[in-house]
Amino acid sequence: MARMPRLYLPGCAQHLVQRGNNKEVCFLTYADNKAYLAFLRKAAVQYRVAIHAFVLMSNHVHLLVSPKDEKGVGLMMQSLGRQYVRYFNQKYERTGTLWEGRYKSSLVDSERYLLMVYQYIELNPVRANMVRHASEYPWSSYQYNAVGRKIELITPHDEYLALGVDDQERQANYRSLFRGKMKQVDLQAIREACQRASILGSEKFIKNFEEKTGRKAKSANRGGDRRSIKFRKLRFQ
């Protein structure tokens, strides 16, 4: 059976997750992390995909990206996969697959959910009890978005740029988003949307997607319209 094409909407960001096969470790040394990011930057430039946020965990990767066209993300991930797996297998004298099948992906409603996905990605090391605060983890875009460290890989999204009139104000406002823990309902919505290859967005956003593309977002977990009574009840439980 042919695979359904992934959801795509021009100008819409995507949350990507790629996991190690059988939950195996994919990064053993700092050199591995550096190599992956170098391959990612090269592929992102080649296939015109903007990288807004990332985190490299020991056995999986999260990316928040915006492609210029429908094929960009797929081509980027294929190129990245080939280059990094070749590097990893040669270095550690192994053979076979490294990643667990196809990467997972979801479309992200920029107006309401984009910064939430930024937080979700960069808080991964905190939820995994690897660090106490996102600032302590070196292999995520928090170092750029909140601290101001130069990372050439990163292209700021318009929603991030809207946080302030200059870098200092944006970084300060971004850091304020990381006070406290994310709501469980938000975590669940993000995870389910990516697992189902669907949409993280409001009812209005999903309707707009269906009208523009002529596709039904039938597998979409709509993440709860934040204006709805049902969502508000879940949100504050």
UniProtKB/TrEMBL annotation:
Q: Transposase IS200-like domain: from which residue to which, for each copy?
A: 9-124
Gene3D superfamilies listed in its UniProt record: Transposase IS200-like
GO molecular function ontology, one term from the record:
DNA binding
Q: Which GO terms describe its biological process?
A: DNA transposition
Pfam families on file: Y1_Tnp (PF01797)
Protein's UniProt name = Transposase
Name its species. Pseudomaricurvus hydrocarbonicus
